[in-house]
Amino acid sequence: MSFNDELVRRFEQMAQMLELTGANPFRVNAHARAARTIDDLTSDLGEIAGDAKALIAIPGIGKGIAEKIGEFAETGKIGEHLDLLAEVPAGLLRVLEVPGLGPKKVALLWKDLGVEDIDGLKRVIADGSILGLPRMGAKTVENLIASIAFMESSGQRLHLGIAAPIAEAIVERMESVKGVKRAAYAGSLRRGRETIGDIDVLITTGDPDGAREAFTTMPGMTEVLAKGESKSSVRLSLEGIDHARWGGDGAAAQVQVDLRIVPEASWGAALMYFSGSKEHNVRLRERAQKQGLTLNEYGLYPEDGEDEPPQKRGVKAKAGKTEEDIYAALGLAWVPPEIREDRGELDVEQTPRLIEAGDIRAELHAHTTASDGSMSLEELVAEAKARKFHTIAVTDHSKSSAQAGGLDETRLRAQRAQIEALRETTTGIEILCGCEVDILGDGSLDYDDGFLAELDVVVASPHVALSQEPKKATARLLKAIENPYVHVLGHPTGRLINRRKGLEPAMDEIIAAAVEHDVALEINAHWMRLDLRDTHVRAAVEAGAKIAIDCDDHAPGDFDNLVYGVLTGRRGWLTPELCVNTWTKAKLHKWLRSKHG
Ligand code: DGT
Ligand code: CA
Ligand code: CA
Ligand code: ZN
Fold first, then answer.
1. Which CATH number, 1.10.3210.10, 1.10.150.110, 2.40.100.10, 2.60.120.280, labels domain 3-88?
2. Ligand 1 atom 29 nearest Cα
3. For the residues 401-408, what does the mean pLDDT come to?
4. Pick the CATH number of 357-594 from 2.40.128.120, 3.20.20.140, 3.40.50.1980, 3.30.310.50
5. Can you say whether the dihedral through the CA atoms of 366, 436, 406, 370 is positive or negative?
6. pLDDT tens, 194-234?
7. Which ligand 1 atom is nearest residue 191's CA?
8. Which ligand is nearest to the CA of 367?
9. pLDDT at residue number 154
10. Which tens digit of pLDDT belongs to each residue from 147-188?
11. Which of 175, 182, 317, 535 has most Cβ atoms within 10 angstroms of its Cβ?
12. What's the pLDDT tens digit per position in 287-317?
């Protein structure tokens, strides 16, 4: 693990453990923020670890944190981190992730009932002693039981944003192996699903032995599960990828990777077969059968009733080299992998032109150091400009999000003055003054209408009361959508994949209201959120709702999450026209002003 990663892990743990010991929220936040800041640095902090001044010059690193970095560089440890580890049981961090359990409750479970891990939590639920805690009724406990089950069942699939960079690195590595002609990943990852069970890689090669050898000796490889003629499987360690921070203790520590060596003439058939989905493949095979053909991972062949597979008998394939050839031979146009889910994709005349990352020209949801971001206003604008966006909206948190440094009206007005000054010296990009206003539990917004009307763009998002019952959640979101000054409903359910279910509103009502009140529904591109999820996007698209794809940037690297938002959009059959981020500057600004004229 790199010097930076070592620090990120320690500061992240310290923030959580400090929270459990009831430390001052500002100290908790300083450590969490340091972790995020360091995680996003592109330079090695080890180079300047002895230079306190240089460290403090980095936004997000204060004096206390700088000292700890120095201590770690010198001794390889941080005293306070070790003290906390001795004080707080390791399993308690996992308990902290159970939806519905905040730090205060977890601290009580620990101090009063001796709970040290998930098993301990199950024990106090089973013997009923948990009911003795303040504000812990039968209904809350029922929710806890469901939450634990959810965590335990869903902890093992990898987030898209963790799996994709690993798969890309493997493909790149295999491409560089002597004899390899083609390499690609297939499976759920190619379809852009929000979580991934395992990674499927296909290659063609003139030197299968060499490819197998290279594959089974990859760095990070912990176990070879199979090393056969056409298929090899390994397990890769996820250590150092730092996903544990996101997935918690129960997250997968390893990922399985399958490599398949396929004949050049079968490349398209294999790619199609192993990209799935299984349900899509079944539909394709049915279609082939009706035409007197048979489809497998080697190609599309005439059906001749023989038991032995056609490729083994030297039967000539009708198609197999490319996916396009096979779809065409079946009388179909090529289907983008993201919609191969047997959700009607084979029944339409022509699948629509789906949105692409290159279509996105504006970002409408981003944070600066004014709230909980790590970029200054200038850095944010420079980053957006580097992505060739015509518009960047500054949308820091509102006052109720005290933990995230939310802005009250006075601070936001001061920020607007700063934005206006920056506009004077900035060319090539429009900077919008906006906010991410909290949707409070009852659906009211954290600023009054008069103040919202002063802003260029309003993203309204739920952050608290996320385990609210569905009826209340629906009413709450509807109320926010009906507010005439809201442009975008940000991460509508507030879910965190594998960690928190979030709100469960009646999505059809939300979508209908969004259409009626001309509000865009956000696909939050962060791979922890991807909220709206694919199925919601599909429903929104069918209803003609506007969609925003935003990165909710807190750090420069967050802009790179755009691809995951776009994949989710594609899974929901999203076309560019419905996505406000693809619009020209004139069209986008006209729409924004239509609500704030
Ligand atoms: P995952 O790994 O659980 O996220 O999902 P997939 O879709 O990557 O599934 P995986 O890795 O089990 O298999 C990769 C693809 O191979 C799958 O999408 C479709 C194809 N496939 C696997 N098993 C079968 C099968 O029994 N029948 C058919 N038709 N296709 C299969
Ligand atoms: Ca897979
Ligand atoms: Ca697989
Ligand atoms: Zn945000």
1. 1.10.150.110
2. 278
3. 91
4. 3.20.20.140
5. positive
6. 999 899 999 999 999 999 999 999 988 888 888 988 899 99
7. 7
8. 4
9. 47
10. 787 667 545 689 999 999 999 999 999 999 999 999 999 999
11. 317
12. 999 999 999 999 999 999 999 999 999 999 9
- Percent composition of the chain: helix, strand, coil (DSSP 3-state, to 5): 50, 15, 35
Token code pair at residue 165: 């960079």
For domain 158-261, the CATH superfamily is Beta Polymerase, domain 2 (3.30.460.10)
Is residue 47 within 8 Å of 30, Cβ to Cβ?
A: no
CA distance 322 to 85: 55
How many Å apart are CA 292 and CA 301, to the nearest integer?
9
Burial of 566 (0-12, 13-18, 19+ CB in 10 A): buried
Q: 197 alpha carbon to ligand 3 midpoint, in Å? A: 8
Ligand 1 binding pocket includes 278 (Cβ within 6 Å): yes
Q: Which ligand 1 atom lies nearest to the CA of residue 200?
A: 11
Q: Could you tell me which of 504, 557, 507, 486 has the C-alpha nearest to residue 527?
A: 557
Q: How many CA atoms lie within 13 A of 175 on its CB side?
A: 10
Which is the closest atom of ligand 1 to the Cα of 281? 29
The confidence score (pLDDT) of residue 1 equals 57
Domain map of the chain by residue range? 3-88, 92-154, 158-261, 269-339, 357-594
Contact 188 CB / ligand 1 (< 6 Å): yes
Q: Is any ligand 1 atom within 6 A of the Cβ of residue 568?
A: no
Domain spanning 92-154 has what CATH number? Answer: 1.10.150.20
Quote the ligand 2 centre to 185 CA distance (angstroms). 9
112 C-beta closer than 6 A to ligand 1: no
State the closest ligand 1 atom to the C-alpha of 198, by its place in the atom list counted from 1. 2
Three-state secondary-structure class, residue 293 = strand
Q: Based on DSSP, count helices (H) and strands (E) in the chain, helices before strands.
A: 24, 16
Tokens of 38: 């360091």
pLDDT tens-digit readout, 315-329: 999 999 999 999 999
Cβ of 256 less than 6 Å from ligand 1: no
- Which residue's entry shows tokens 């010059």? 57
Q: Is 274 in the pocket of ligand 1 (CB under 6 A)?
A: yes
The atom number, within ligand 1, closest to the CA of 258 reads: 11
- Whether residue 360 contacts residue 576, with contact meaning beta carbons closer than 8 Å, is answered with no
Say if CB 186 and CB 274 are below 8 A apart: yes
Residue having the nearest C-alpha atom to atom 28 of ligand 1: 278
Domains 3-88 and 92-154 share a fold: yes
Question: Which of ligand 1's atoms lies nearest the C-alpha of 282?
Answer: 29
Site of tokens 């979030």? 502
CATH fourth-level superfamily of 269-339:
DNA polymerase, thumb domain (3.30.210.10)
For ligand 1, atom 18, name the residue with the nearest CA.
Answer: 276
CA of 391 to the centre of ligand 4 (A): 17
